[in-house]
Write a structure and sequence with these properties.
This protein is of the alpha/beta class and 238 residues long. Helix content is 28%, strand content 36%. The protein folds into two domains: 173 residues, Rossmann fold (3-Layer(aba) Sandwich); 60 residues, S-adenosyl-L-methionine-dependent methyltransferases. α5 crosses α6.
Amino acid sequence: MYGDDFSESYVSYYEGRGKDYGAEAEDVAKLIRDRKPDAASLLDVAAGTGAHLRRFGELFDHVEGVELSESMVAFGRARYPDLVQHQGDMRSFAIDGRFDSVTCMFSSIGHVGTVDDLDATLACFAAHLNPGGVVVVEPWWFPENFLDGYVAGGVVTTPDGRTIARVSHSSREGDQTKITVHFVIADAERGLRHVTEVGLLTLFTQEQYEAAFRKAGIAVEHLDGGPLGRGLFLGIRE
């Protein structure tokens, strides 16, 4: 999942589209400190290449990231060598230390698969939290909000002269979303190339998310809005 070309295109495209990782990190940090004013450490799960993690590192004394994709971890380590980024599965990772906060952004939690996987993921988050620690999760769409057959697209030109086009199609298959993404990248040196990825994200209900938090010993609330309009779950470890 997520080869080297996809990882590079993914980062460049969203940066070119103006995704404001810094503003999103500041908003999340405020939510965390509203609940835990002394929060000094953060673990970003499904950290991708570290774009959010880098910004969190400007707001917390200590940050680390966990990401399943080896290519994204490698890309992130090369781009942000001062950040600590681990390769691991959000359902089962185990790293040393505990944190005042755990985040999981960009709807990455939708990739976990089943309700049992969701329960295991939240239990893993809780195991890496200090008592009173805060969890912030940006979910995938709830079943009633997903638009079957949704198509998205855009084109950006990067500062180094590459043109990147992204087109995606999302369809519902039972309780999952199948997302097919095509990137076309063009530059003077390498010419034209094409990268395709297909992913599955589960359409968990709000009740399933909240039950997973509670099973993990985390009191939870749901906030409307969020970076992409999909809301946020905010929990405190009891």
